[in-house]
Structures are given as C-alpha cells and as structure tokens.
C-alpha cells in the first residue's frame, strides 16, 4: 500500500480488540494508555469503527472530559471561553 505521507499506522493490535467486540470507547482507552496521540487515536477510531470525525472526537471527549456527549462538552466550554474573552477585552 502506498502511503503518500511517508508513514503507515499499524492498528492491528486495536483491530483485534475491535473484532473481539470491544467498543470504540474501550479501545480508545487502551490506545491512550499505550501512548497514542490525539491524531493517531482519531485515525484509529475512524478506520476501525468507520466513525465520522465528529463521532471519533466524541469518543475521546466523553472519555477524557467525563461528559456524556460532545454537545455537553461544548456547552460547558462556551462559558469558559466567553469569560476568557471578556477578561482579555477588559485589559485592552
């Protein structure tokens, strides 16, 4: 297989977990413990579970942030961003 970016991701270990019936959330947890970075985890989840980018992000966010969904995470994040923007605007 030709990979134009000069690297190939080997997700065979995680594929075996997927084929054994483990959920995307469970496999992500293992990959995270193995030290896979964010972008590799996104690629792995999308490839093995045929997830959209948004769905793969939701697996990661619900795992890392303790939220039930990406929407809940964004709703919690919005006030923090607004407060930081207001803080920065008052310093100008």
Number of DSSP helices? 5
* Overall outline: elongated
Number of strands: 0
What summary fits the major beta sheet? none
- Relative helix content: 55-70%
Task: Describe the protein's architecture and organization.
- The protein is an all-alpha fold and 92 residues long.
- The chain has one domain (12-90).
- Helices cover 70% and strands 0% of the residues.
- It contains five helices and no strands.
- It has helices spanning 12-19, 24-33, 38-49, 53-65, 70-90.
- The model has no long low-confidence stretch (mean pLDDT 86).
Short description:
The chain is mostly helical and 92 residues long.
Topology, please?
Blueprint: H1 12-19, H2 24-33, H3 38-49, H4 53-65, H5 70-90
Helix pairs in contact: 2-3, 2-4, 3-4
Give me some keywords for this one.
92 residues, mainly alpha, elongated
